[in-house]
Amino acid sequence: MTIDFSPLLPWPYLAALALVAAALAAFGIWRGVRGAWLRAAALAAFCLALANPVLFQEEREPLSTIVAVVVDRSQSQDNDGRREQTDKALSDLKERLARFPQIETRVVEAADGEETEAPSTKLFGALATALADVPPARLGGAIFITDGQIHDVPDINQKLGFDAPIHGLITGKPDEVDRRIEIVNAPRFGIVGEQQRLTFRVVDDGAAEGGSAEVTIRLNGNEIATEHVEPGTDVPFSFTVPRGGNNILEFAVNPIRGEVTEVNNRAVHVLDGIRENLRVLLVSGEPHAGERAWRNLLKSDAAVDLVHFTILRPPEKQDGTPINELSLIAFPTRELFVDKISEFDLIIFDRYQHRGVLPILYYDNIAQYVQNGGALLIAAGPEHAGDDSIAATPLSTVLPANPTGVMNEKAFFPRLSEEGKKHPVTRGLEGASSEPPGWGRWFRTVDVDRPLGQTVMEAADGKPLLVLNRVGKGRVAMLLSDQGWLWARGFEGGGPHISLYRRTAHWLMQEPALEEEALTARALGRTLEITRQTIEGDPGQATLTSPSGRTQEIGLTEREPGLYKAEVKTDEIGLFEVANDELTTLVHVGNVDAPEFKAAISTGEKLQPWAEKTKGIVRRLADADGPVDLPSILPVRGAVRVADDQRLSLRMTDETVLKGVNSLSLFAGLFGLAALLLLISAMWYREGR
């Protein structure tokens, strides 16, 4: 309650009037005039009425005390009945706090974090966000319901922004044990075909049974090694990078009896395979218009080391010129096709014919090169249908088609076959979707018998134009026309010769993205995108196995010919396995080194320092298989100075909110008039006697 003044006259005038009144009153009292004291009181009351004193009284309402209950909803809470303990504890705690009308409970649910983050338990960050609108003086305490594996606990010397107890209610069981495996260090990149080295470690948390651990190592789903290691010891491991692009190394350790979870018994490392420059040998049988198209394409690719020979002077050409006067380079046949043939990733015979340049035995070397994993491309012209065709050499054992000896001399638009519309080498070629195709014509092809493998492009009358085939570990492609250069020169608008040639070459060199039967998956945040390539028709459903072992059937939808896809929203983090027919693939959702999947046993050690500093407590919700037992609530007025081991101390706030202000003018209205009349009447009465 306060008194303030709201004068009816400006203060200078009121002060002058009061000064005159005081002088008159003092003079009357000094002279002993009858009724001087009453006259002084009347003048004072008159001045006070002009000053207009006002009495103010505030109406205030006490504010509630905010108690934050931070609930751990991370994936580690799915272990060993922890989620049930959490739900029970939350329900009981809300009921107990509701018994105190002055306490307002604010529940903060904290999950694994955003999709783009590494999965982790960030309870203090969730608490700070939820209490951003709460003044520090109103916070009575923070109660964490968690397994104790919190990954954003502030340093004990930092400030939290409030002064209230922090309590921890720990889910899980005492004396838990868990075995996990982790990658200590590993390269991010590796050159295809070369060895890389990494280090891993098996860790036993809690009172584990001890003994050696068996670790199974898989690379891209294929088991490559088994190691027996001692827990706690760094183990080096070497492997060879098998392919370009993503390579997934999976380390799986055998479980121990009674461990909390087996989710962290697997560790994953993703390594990007990088190809060194591809070595391509291009042999042109003679100078021709299409030779430069192949050379320009291969030379424009910085990842290709090209070795190109053109046969300008075959052995049968005898014009009497002495050898020492020729400026031509001798064709190093033995060096290329015997000594160093295995060093090439791709061999291209461009309009090449058997004219005695290569000994007949060398063709057998080339066939063995293909059988052992090499790649061979035949770009055929009229010579392939003649008597000197390489199809009449031992190379015929790996060729997918034999020439009939006839050339088809007829203008045609190259078209995709039904298989070609689905095959990744030719699917979606620019201009292929229209009829006739949106590219120029060709005018001749080599006629062949019924080919092996896949005929992905056709010439006139459905004749084979581009044939792809697998032979042993290697691959062979035959382009049965030498007129691809018409597209390169822009004849009748040209055509997609660069895409066609490049895709064919990369398919031959076993590029994973161009496999006709392939199953791939990638993670986009928490969404899995599954892709199935096939030329065999509808592949049916895919089976998705989550890190927890749960399986579900996923329907695949055809997006393009031969390309089926599905998108699946996941609620788990870790390594997923996708299977369809006999194909399997692995994909990791979330960061492969996520904190959420490291230590898994429940603990109060991380919260204990903050509980001690703020006079809170940390205790388990249950012992062994016992029921959930919550400590009681202890409201405390003022600062909490002593921790109570058996109760959750909460600092009650003294904060209030102003609801309104009542004002009363003391000399206004009838009250002021009555006071003045009383004093004036008393003065007249005294003077009249």
From TrEMBL:
Coiled-coil positions: none
SUPFAM superfamilies membership: Class I glutamine amidotransferase-like
Organism this protein belongs to: Sinorhizobium glycinis
InterPro entries membership: Class_I_gatase-like
Transmembrane segments: 12-30, 37-56, 664-685
Aminoacyl-tRNA synthetase keyword on record: no
Record keywords: Membrane, Transmembrane, Transmembrane helix
Signal sequence coordinates: none
CDD domains, sorted: A4_beta-galactosidase_middle_domain
PANTHER family, per the entry: BLL2462 PROTEIN
Protein name according to UniProt: Glutamine amidotransferase domain-containing protein
